Amino acid sequence: MKHTIFTVLLALVALAGQAQKVKMNKPSLDDYLPLLQAKGYMAYSFNTKKFKGKVANVVVEEYVNGKDVGNIFDWDTSISLGKKIVVGFSPLENDSTFKFTFSVEDGATFNGPLKLRPVYHPNDSIKPIYRYVARPFDLSKPGEPGSFIPLVLYGSFWYDAEDDVFRCCGENIIKPDLSSNIVKEMPHFYVFGIKINSTTK
Predict the structure, then answer these.
(1) How far apart are CA 178 and CA 199, in angstroms?
(2) Cross-strand bridge partners of residue 89
(3) 77 Cβ partners below 8 Å, 6+ apart?
(4) Which DSSP state fits 22?
(5) Collapsing DSSP states into helix, strand and coil, what is residue 160?
(6) Which of 82, 108, 149, 161 is the most buried (most CB within 10 A)?
(7) C-alpha to C-alpha distance for 24 and 149, rounded to whole angstroms
(8) What are the strands of the beta sheet with 42-47, ordered from one edge?
(9) DSSP E strands: which ranges in 4-163?
(10) CA nearest 40: which of 186, 174, 154, 199?
(11) Which residues contact 46 (CB under 8 A, 6 or more apart)?
């Protein structure tokens, strides 16, 4: 009887020891996301199944001090929508330029450079910064053919004189009419979206 109890206790100790071990997992794509985001890589995926086959124009509107200065595209940017569209951002070698990419499931892409604007500190000895953040738009209202659907806002930090810091804090989801408080503070931003036509390809 004592031998049996001793054997059971040894088995329980062994099981307890195994339960406390840390095992290494094979890294997944989700594990790499924080590393990519820390380097400035960002991607936003949007479901466009309901518009599959419709033709849309890619639009990137630039705003300076709250004023719309126009679409950065001066050529035809029509694409045929599929199940999804992805808007991505990636850093380039210099601080004043970023790269954007629109891609759809059939492999069609639009990409190009984004010119960034510096934010200055009142103290001239402090180096100006080029720092931007991306925020998705509220898509709770359905999009209609012929209408512009904003997808992602890419906007600059600003200087906060009260706290003497550069900041970019506020809503994580942007209102389509650009009435969000964070937008009102941004001296420079881009709005990425699509304008869906009534025709199909």
Answers:
(1) 28
(2) 42, 100
(3) 57, 58, 59, 110
(4) -
(5) strand
(6) 149
(7) 43
(8) 42-47, 84-91, 97-104, 109-115
(9) 42-47, 54-64, 67-71, 78-80, 84-91, 97-104, 109-115, 132-136, 148-156, 158-160
(10) 154
(11) 84, 85, 86, 87, 139, 151
Four-residue CA torsion sign, 149, 62, 34, 82: positive
DSSP letter, residue 194: E
Token output for 109:
């892409």
Distance CA 169, CA 184 (A): 11
Unique residue bearing structure tokens 């936003």: 44
Side chain identity, residue 93: E
DSSP-derived 3-state class of residue 155: strand
Residue linked to tokens 């659907």: 149
C-alpha 14/C-alpha 177 separation (Å) is 62
Among all chains, which residue has been given the structure tokens 């001239």?
Answer: 124
- Give, as one character, the DSSP assignment of residue 49: G
Length of the chain: 201
